[in-house]
Write a structure and sequence with these properties.
Layout (H helix, E strand, L loop, with lengths): L2 E6 L1 E4 L4 E8 L4 E10 L6 E6 L5 E2 L8 E6 L4 E6 L8 E10 L7 E4 L3 E6 L1
Parallel strand pairs: 2-11
Antiparallel strand pairs: 1-3, 3-8, 4-5, 4-9, 5-6, 7-8, 9-10, 9-11
């Protein structure tokens, strides 16, 4: 069984920093793009950062220059360093990975359980 296990998150004041980590557990054939999404109350889930297997990163303008995503292909992990946090960054953050679970299997989206990030003004 493939699981994404998240850690990190919590509460911080505006301007502070937090680091989220996500580890893929279980046997997989390959892990392609990994990323972090967030969902605030009453809003749709949105992409925060993504990174390809070759470490090409992508960020929306809302977090560009403040958030950094990195992955370790040997450990099957992806981290999100969040700096200069703002109250509008408050949301539940979800790890995502596009995984081929076995040979001759199709790529599927896998999600972590979500971790709360709260930024107070």
């Amino acid at each position: 069984q493939v699981l994404l296990v998240e850690s990190g998150g919590g509460s911080v004041q505006a301007g502070g920093s937090l680091r989220l980590s996500c580890a893929v557990s279980g046997s997989v054939f390959s892990i392609n793009t990994m990323g972090w999404y967030r969902q605030a109350p009453g809003k749709q889930r949105e992409l925060v950062a993504s990174i390809t297997r070759g470490s090409l990163a992508n960020y929306p303008d809302s977090v560009k220059g403040r958030f950094t995503i990195a992955r370790d292909n040997a450990k099957n992990t992806v981290d999100l360093q969040m700096n200069s946090l703002k109250p509008e960054d408050t949301a539940v953050y979800y790890c995502n990975a596009k995984i081929v679970p076995g040979l001759w299997r199709h790529e599927s989206d896998y999600w972590g359980q979500g971790t709360q990030v709260t930024v107070s003004s």
